[in-house]
From TrEMBL:
Residues 10-20 have a biased composition (Gly residues). Pfam families: CDC50 (PF03381). The lineage of its organism: Eukaryota, Viridiplantae, Streptophyta, Embryophyta, Tracheophyta. This is ALA-interacting subunit. It comes from the Eukaryota. It comes from Oryza nivara (Indian wild rice). The chain crosses the membrane at residues 52-73, 306-328.
Length: 350
């Protein structure tokens, strides 16, 4: 009996010694179980002072030059930004701008002049900029039907609510995003010469070819009593209505720019450019702002100093920490215990 008990105990111990058995079902001895229990072997680097200082030094030496290059590229972008939503309101309506924008009998045409400070080489991109307009609002973003934009009015969904049907007929394109389409228009002249603006290919090619149908036409759009924004040409398919395609790609922030067109000729320094604006879009009811942007671009894109400053600040901070940690380590070296004896861990003495 003693031998049998001993054999049984040793057998149980052997089973427990097999990786993961220990009285558990075989399913608990696999790699997945060890992964979920964090029992897999892992590499745990020893972050010695020398390793930490070297990492910060490499980050600083890399990031500072990259930040300077990004700032240099951003500073070479020539840009004109002109806010017009206030200047384009007649003096008699300065105190009641909503009455002005809602009265269809009042002309919304406006002429503004700007001076080109620097040489702007083509292509020159024309953007409109809106501020305090939340395209990222949950109900606003959901109020659309991607299937309808692609395949037509046979797809109607409650997700387009509240702009889904009018007089019992479906609306194409439906939803709040399409209904609030931006409808200000712009023209430019240099003296008596018109500056042409190319309105083609201002949207993403993937959107034109895959998200908006080539045989889907606007239907029953902006025919209700309440008009939200611009109208669409019922004779053109949605894939060719690029203003709509650009507008339907919603912005993540309340201040955003969207491409209106491209000027394909140079603008010389000290030139006076006349902007002919149709101030149709109602931003006055929610305290929004409208601006017209003319800008060039570089290999890095448009004017944006954030990326350059982010690299510079991160790199400078890393270099500062490198110097600080090196001085601290020289003054107070880290010690470790080997066989009961304390030894200095000088990263530079080996």
């Amino acid at each position: 009996m003693m031998e049998e008990a001993s054999t049984s105990a040793s057998g149980g111990g052997g089973a427990a010694a097999n990786g993961g058995q220990r009285g558990f079902p075989p399913a608990r001895s696999g790699v997945f179980y060890r992964f979920t229990q964090q029992n897999l072997p892992a590499w745990k680097p020893a972050m010695t002072p020398g390793c930490v200082i070297t990492i910060f030094l490499m980050i600083g030496v890399t990031f500072v030059p990259v930040g300077l290059v990004c700032l240099h590229a951003s500073n070479h972008v020539a840009e004109i930004a002109h806010r017009y939503d206030i200047d384009c309101v007649p003096n008699t309506y300065k105190r009641n701008r909503q009455a002005y924008i809602k009265d269809s009998s009042i002309s919304k045409n406006c002429t503004q002049e700007v001076k080109v400070k620097y040489l702007m080489r083509a292509p020159i991109y024309v953007y409109y900029e809106l501020d305090n307009f939340y395209q990222n609002h949950r109900r606003y973003v959901k109020s659309r039907s991607d299937k309808q934009l692609r395949y037509g009015q046979k797809y109607t969904h409650s997700s387009c609510d509240p702009i889904e049907r009018n007089d019992g007929l479906p609306i194409v394109p439906c939803g709040l995003i399409a209904w609030s389409l931006f409808n200000d228009t712009y023209g430019f002249t240099r003296g008596s010469t018109e500056i042409k603006v190319n309105r083609k290919n201002i949207s993403w090619k993937s959107d034109r070819e895959h998200k908006f149908g080539k045989d889907v036409y606007p239907f029953n759009f902006q025919n209700g009593s309440l008009i939200g924004g611009g109208k669409l040409d019922p004779a053109l398919p949605l894939s060719q209505q690029e203003d709509l395609i650009v507008w339907m790609r919603t912005a993540a922030l309340p201040q955003f720019r969207k491409l209106y067109g491209v000027i394909e000729e140079d603008l010389q320094a000290d030139e006076i450019i006349t902007m002919h604006i149709a101030n149709n879009y109602n931003t006055y009811s929610f305290g929004g702002k409208k601006s017209l942007i003319l800008t060039t671009s570089t290999w890095l894109g448009g004017k944006n100093d954030f990326l350059g400053y982010a690299y510079l600040i991160t790199g400078s901070l890393s270099l500062f920490l490198t110097i600080l940690f090196a001085l601290i380590h020289v003054k107070n070296p880290r010690c470790i215990s080997i066989n009961g004896r304390h030894q200095r861990l000088d990263w530079f003495i080996h």
